[in-house]
Amino acid sequence: MSTLAHTMMTAARSADSGLAGPGELDRYPYAEAPVTERLGAPSWDGSDPELGRVGRRATGSRGRGLHGQLVQQLGQMIVSGDLGADRPLVPEEIGQRFEVSRTVVRESLRVLEAKGLVSARPNVGTRVRPVSDWNLLDPDIIEWRAFGPQRDNQRRELSELRWTIEPLAARLAAGHGREDVQQRLSDMVEIMGHAMAQGDALTFSRADAEFHSLLIQVAGNRMLEHLSGIVSSALQVSGGPVTGCDRPTDASLAHHARIVDALAAGDGAAAEAAMRQLLIVHPEVERVVPAPREH
What we know:
This protein is mostly helical. Helices cover 56% and strands 3% of the residues.
């Protein structure tokens, strides 16, 4: 096993056990464990029962401290539909019920506004915006949708988006014969192989996410590169066997290896074909991603 493979697998196990990793851990982000600070289980007796539901569904926040938790909880409630479109959000009420300062509420609402979830206007106040205004490519919103009532639609949409993006990225990447990138992609395949042999699904998924993110980044298209984080989010929150990437198998590993071989040979068509094979939806999934039409 290479040094990189050993380091990555050690880091994954450390993260899974709650221990600090040897420096590599931060390079493979994943959803944090649920938090139990005071925002985790509010007890409200006020007139708004919808806001009181948050404590039973809250999960870990990407942010830190009270601000990050409040963003997470309000975001989940909006995306789940508990707080519907045009619903007024009164900062004073939120502050009182979550027992947080005005500053925490104000900054949290600004984050949600940047994601398109709420809007604040003079004489109108802060209100929830309709789905059509949301930034559906935001990693947080992807996660909230993936673990909420819209999970099936989110999984299907992410699969369709990946089907559109990644075969093209593989074709374009074949024209960028950088040895360092080739080696890194080969390392990821090696790591996935060792992880699969040891039943280490966490390490496999992290190496898989880096493989796909790196491939998009070296495609030479800045707009595609901007979408690399979306693909990583899709891999982390798919929640079921949607594509060949979603569970470690010999076939999945072989398709990854074929992509690397095609890139090394500068064969864009072969790289694209191998990626399409990798992204084929499993038969047991009802909705599938259609193959492109022949003209």
